[in-house]
Each structure stands twice: as structure tokens, then as C-alpha cells.
Design goal:
Helix content is 51%, strand content 10%. With 334 residues, the protein is α/β, with parallel strands linked by helices. Helix 1 packs antiparallel against helix 2, helix 4 packs across helix 6 and helix 7 runs parallel beside helix 12. The two termini are 55 Å apart.
């Protein structure tokens, strides 16, 4: 591979000569007995202009000679700039060596408080640079950072609340269409008992629903589950014709289980059961319905309806439909 200019230019791993030069640098620094020897090796390495071998190598030097060379990262640089009112930038040996001189002087001045090991003062700079330690020099920055965090948290919460409200609205909208369609087809409609006060298009869902759900053959525990299914259609003899679970962010799996409970509680072979969900969850529905545990349930036959199809075709089905079979036009099965 060719490189412009110095034949050693390029990343470390791209050139065997670069690898050898870096190996010699490490060996020389390991064997060095004084600061001048290490500085000579740094200038040699810097002269090769090997990409990726800037002052981050200083971290290796720190482990080899912790009393002579401090570690180096973004937070340490930020802390250095705040404490010493500097504007050093990460990325050059020149900047690192200039920082090192100031750090050594400060460390010698406060040796009794800090340590001969430069990791102590580097740790102090890191705490300042990461805003974990507040001092006069970075107080304004810390306040600004905290305010920014609070604004982001509020924006995130606002977005979550808005998304939750949008989901609730979509859920109510689908229940409204199903209730309206059921009544148009001549069925009695039951809306989940905890949703009667929900409003869509200026109408309460409870106005479409029968006031009481009477299923005397069900045990209290099963009746409790069935009464919370989003929408039920019943014939004039109060037999359940169809059940619908509207899914938004809730578990598709739990919706299928509720419909299965309903199917087992009635003569499931005569019922029609549907999951109603947004387009973005279609693949999830298909995957759940293909689970072996559901595929082997002879009593359960579930299809699904997408929000967009129910929304677009509800009026036409109300006008031209005769019974529950009209849903075959928009439902899908796996």
C-alpha cells in the first residue's frame, strides 16, 4: 500500500515499518532511566506522523513512568482547561507536552495534598472535566450542563406522554369503528367495561355498548377476563359472535391469550376472533400466531386487522355488509 510523502505515513496496522517503529519506541521507553531519554523517543515517534499514534500513547507512558507522564483523555483536557484557564485541544504531542509541564508544576506545588504519582492530579482534572467536581472555574459550565440535562429529560418525558396519548387515541378510535360497524350489522356491542367513558368523534364509547354483559355460563374469573376484551359482538340471543382485541404498545401475546380464554369459554367454532393492530406490528403478530403453542390450539382461530384497513373501509362495510363475514374483506391470517 502506498502513502504520500513519508513512506511511513499511514495507520499503524497498515505498514510493517510503522509497527517496528512503535515497538522500538515502547522498548526504549521501558528501558529509559530518565526523562530526557523518553522525550527523545517521543520526538522520534512524532516525526514519523503515524496516524492513530498521537498523545493517546501517553497513557502507556503513564503506566511505564507514572511520576513523569500524566495520562491523557478528553475529560482530563477539559479539566485542565477549566482549572488553568487554557484552551488546549486533544490531538497533538505539542499540546500534551505543554499540558504536562503545567501539570508537573502544579503537582510539585501541591505535592503534600496530591501525590508523586501523576494519576492523582490527572484524576482531579478528570473529575473537573467530567463535571463531577464543581469549582469556581467550571461552575457556569456545570449549571449549563445540568440545565441542558433537565431540558432533555423534560423533552423526553413530553415525547413519551404525547406518544402514550396518541396510542390511547388510536385505541379508542378503533373501538369506535368496531362498535359502529357491529351495530350497523345488527349485532349488540359490548365495549370493555373500563372503556365506556372514552370519547371519539364526540361520542362516548359507552353509548354504543349494552349496559350489562350477561354470560351466566361463565365462571366469575373467566367472566372478569371476557368483560375486559376490547370489543364483543353478540347476536340477539346474547351469544358472542366475535371478539376483538385492539393492540397498541401492549403485548400481542397477552391479547391472543385473552381471545383464547374467550374461545374456550364459548363454542369457539362458531366465533370469529381478531387482533386489531397498527401496521408497524404486523410482523410481530405473524410471529406470535406462528408460535407452536398457538398453532396446536384447535379451539382457536385468530385473524388480524390492521388499523389502516379498518379506518379506511369501515364506512363501506357499514353500508354494504350484512354480517360478521364482511370482515373477511380486510382481515388477514397466517
Amino acid at each position: 500500500m502506498r502513502f504520500s510523502g513519508n513512506q511511513n505515513c499511514g495507520y499503524l496496522y497498515e505498514n510493517e515499518l510503522n509497527k517496528q517503529a512503535f515497538g522500538r519506541f515502547l522498548k526504549a521507553c521501558l528501558e529509559a532511566t530518565n526523562e530526557d531519554q523518553i522525550m527523545t523517543e517521543i520526538h522520534k515517534l512524532n516525526g514519523l506522523k503515524i496516524k492513530g499514534l498521537g498523545p493517546t500513547v501517553a497513557n502507556i507512558l503513564y503506566f511505564l513512568h507514572p511520576t513523569l507522564f500524566p495520562p491523557f483523555n478528553t475529560a482530563i483536557v477539559n479539566g485542565f482547561n477549566a482549572l488553568f484557564n487554557q484552551k488546549k485541544k486533544l490531538g497533538s504531542w505539542e499540546a500534551y507536552l505543554e499540558m504536562r509541564e503545567v501539570i508537573l508544576q502544579a503537582n510539585n506545588l501541591h505535592r503534600s495534598t496530591l501525590s508523586k504519582d501523576l494519576g492523582a492530579i490527572a484524576g482531579l482534572l478528570f473529575e473537573i472535566g467530567s463535571n463531577r467536581l464543581v469549582i469556581e472555574e467550571n461552575a457556569v459550565k456545570v449549571i449549563s450542563s445540568e440545565q441542558e440535562k433537565q431540558l432533555k429529560a423534560k423533552a423526553k418525558r413530553h415525547k413519551e406522554v404525547a406518544a402514550d396519548q396518541q396510542e390511547e387515541n388510536a385505541h379508542t378510535e378503533m373501538q369506535y369503528y368496531l362498535a359502529k360497524l357491529g351495530q350497523s350489522l345488527g349485532y349488540k356491542v359490548w365495549i370493555a367495561r373500563n372503556d365506556h367513558k372514552r370519547v371519539w368523534n364526540g361520542e362516548k364509547l359507552g353509548e354504543f355498548s349494552i349496559k350489562e354483559l350477561s354470560l351466566p355460563t361463565l365462571s366469575p374469573a373467566v367472566f372478569e377476563t371476557v368483560s375486559l376484551i376490547d370489543v364483543l359482538w353478540l347476536d340477539q340471543s346474547n351469544k358472542i359472535v366475535s371478539g376483538f382485541e385492539v393492540e397498541k404498545s401492549t403485548s400481542i401475546y397477552s391479547g391472543i391469550l385473552r381471545l383464547n380464554d374467550l374461545s374456550l369459554s364459548i363454542d369457539g367454532t362458531k366465533g370469529h376472533f381478531y387482533l386489531v393492530a397498527p401496521e408497524g406490528r404486523e410482523k410481530e403478530i405473524q410471529a406470535q400466531l406462528l408460535r407452536p403453542s398457538f398453532r396446536t390450539l384447535e379451539s382457536l382461530s385468530i385473524a388480524y386487522i390492521l388499523f389502516k384497513d379498518l379506518r379506511c373501509d369501515c364506512e363501506a362495510m357499514c353500508k354494504f355488509g350484512h354480517d360478521v363475514t364482511v370482515l373477511k374483506k380486510i382481515c388477514k391470517a397466517v
